Amino acid sequence: MIGVIFWSGTGNTEKMAYEVAEGIKAAGQEVEVKSVSEVSVDDAAAYEKLALGCADMGAEELEDGEFEPFYAELESKLGGKKLAIFGSYGWGGTWLEDWGTRIKDAGGELVADGLAVLGEPDDDGIAQCQELGKTLANA
Ligand SMILES: Cc1cc2nc3c(=O)[nH]c(=O)nc-3n(C[C@H](O)[C@H](O)[C@H](O)COP(=O)(O)O)c2cc1C
């Protein structure tokens, strides 16, 4: 089972999460999509593979009320796990690079570069999300 876990303030990253899940399903794998508020760190760590999504907030940072504390606790449990990261941004878009470095430093295996989409995903963004899901499923 693959988990897709996201934080989204205005729905853009949420939309991405469901399209990543479509790609996972299209590759023949089972998937559960959950908002970060509905999943514990232990439940997240129990998924065989993870797609994590968070909008670009603060100053090129993960959202710090819910997602950053969740991820900080999850980080120590990522060793050897295959992951994909994604999110929507407004004007910068570099937060996924820092996040990717944190994942690699924690021993997680990123199956692809982080997928950043400007604002609401358009058809191209949707296709990229689905492709990311397929890549994770087949990794
Ligand atoms: C408080 C706040 C801080 C933000 N900080 C950034 C930022 O540092 N860089 C950036 O590119 N976009 C920033 N944004 C824009 C959001 O990343 C953008 O609106 C995104 O589409 C929101 O995705 P969501 O609908 O999943 O919440 C910020 C938005 C808010 C509300």
TrEMBL record:
Flavodoxin-like domain location, by residue?
A: 2-137
- Coiled-coil annotation reads none
Electron transport as UniProt keyword: yes
Q: State the Gene Ontology terms under molecular function.
A: electron transfer activity; FMN binding; oxidoreductase activity, acting on NAD(P)H
**Domain of life, per lineage:** Bacteria
Entry keywords, A to Z: Electron transport, Flavoprotein, FMN, Transport
Q: Which PROSITE patterns match?
A: FLAVODOXIN, FLAVODOXIN_LIKE
NCBIfam families, from UniProt? flav_short
In which family does this protein belong, per the annotation?
Belongs to the flavodoxin family.
The protein here is known as Flavodoxin
